[in-house]
Amino acid sequence: MEKFILTDHPHRRYNPLLDEWILVSPQRAKRPWQGQKETISEEKKPEYDETCYLCPGNERINSETNPKYENCYVFDNDFPALLKDEVSFDLEQEDLFKINPERGINRVICFSPKHNVTLAEMQIPEIENVIKVWKEQYLELGSISYINHVQIFENKGSVMGCSNPHPHGQIWAQSSLPTQVKRTQNNLLKYFQEKGKTMLKDYLDSEILKKERIIAENERFVLLVPFWATWPYETMIISKRHFSSIAKITEEEIKSFAEMIQVITVKYDNLFKTSFPYSAGIHQAPTDGLNHDEWHFHMHFYPPLLRSATIKKFMVGYELLAEAQRDLTAEQSAEILRNLPNKHYKF
How far is residue 83's CA from residue 173's CA, in Å, rounded to a whole number? Predict the structure, then answer.
């Protein structure tokens, strides 16, 4: 009988955060993909666009005017997915037809007054400003009595559903724990109760020893491709110190966190010489007033590109009907990203 070889034979990997498996088929990609050479022609954007509803001083669709902001700017989303108002609810519930009203607040955060930059093209102090605003918003929104979860995220690029190229992210604060967050919390809590320490602390300590999937690290954070990664170049930034939310991040950690965000976003752009699309977001403790020591601060990056600036990886067929699958192993994508320069290809 042939002996199992990790880089040659199909296998499933376990994701302890979500309690699910992913199928890995390394035999379909025996060597790391070096990337096709074609790039897409990127439109050169001006620093200020008079037609952009996110640029400083411009009028938004609701006739409100943006201030002439010089750093970050936050406002309530003009087209929110959640509404603040409480509603009366008396529908009779059925086992197979359940409905629960959901209440919340949606905000937009403009990362920079400059229309023509992304996080990858911003300086460390500018990214630090973004992180500080994330912290302020988490604390402000999380202090509202009916808000139990604050989701900070960014959709970058039109392929990820971003409707405006101005550098910005979103914050959705709501009364319930979303499905993915609830699943993660259940698994984190179970591990913490059994082991007396966080799952991600143990996981990170092991990754640091193995050094197979680490892309970069500094004194306070590690950037890596998770062992259970689903997307081809999926990554995580994990804090070395155990703290449960951005509310507890220190000034020194803000700078280190900014450095890791810059490293991965620059490497992404350098991979296929394009403004690399992704969805990214922070996972952290709920804001329900309870002590959540099981949570360990981390940030996910989910980019769709696979082999070039135009070839994307979609969840289709088997993945929609059975479970997630990938050909490029986590170790291969980590090596590719690790070997890319930290200086942006445009500069």
Answer: 10
Instruction: Please give the pLDDT value at position 31.
Output: 53
> Where in the sequence numbering do the catalytic residues fall?
168
Tell whether pTM > 0.85: yes
Low-confidence ranges of the chain (pLDDT < 70): 29-42
Closest CA to 244 of 282, 215, 195, 208: 282
Query: Counting every residue, how long is the chain?
Result: 347
What is the rounded CA–CA span in Å between residue 263 and residue 281?
A: 16
How many structural domains is the chain composed of? Answer: 2
Nearest to 81 by CA among 19, 5, 145, 171: 171
Q: Quickly count: other Cβ atoms within 10 Å of residue 64's Cβ.
A: 11
Tokens representing 194? 């059994």
Kindly state whether residues 242 and 298 are assigned to the same domain: yes
Same domain, 200 and 323: yes
Domain membership of residue 235 (yes or no) is: yes
How many CB atoms within 10 Å of residue 92?
6
Q: 143 and 23: one domain?
A: no
Q: Is residue 86 part of a domain?
A: yes
Under a CB-based contact definition with an 8 Å cutoff, are residues 48 and 115 in contact? yes
Q: Are residues 267 and 332 in the same domain?
A: yes
> Which pLDDT belongs to residue 316?
82
**For the domain that residue 21 is a member of, what is the CATH number?**
3.30.428.10
Structural domain range at position 146: 73-174
CB-facing half-sphere around the CA of 209: CA atoms within 13 A: 6
Say if 2 falls within a structural domain: no
Per-residue pLDDT of 114-156, as tens digits, reads: 999 999 999 999 999 999 999 999 999 999 999 999 999 999 9
Where a domain ends, among 112, 140, 174? 174
pLDDT at 92: 84
Q: What is the pLDDT of residue 311?
A: 77
Residue 239 backbone dihedrals phi, psi, to 5 degrees: -75, 140
CB neighbours of residue 21 within 10 Å? 14
Residue 52 inside a domain? The answer is no
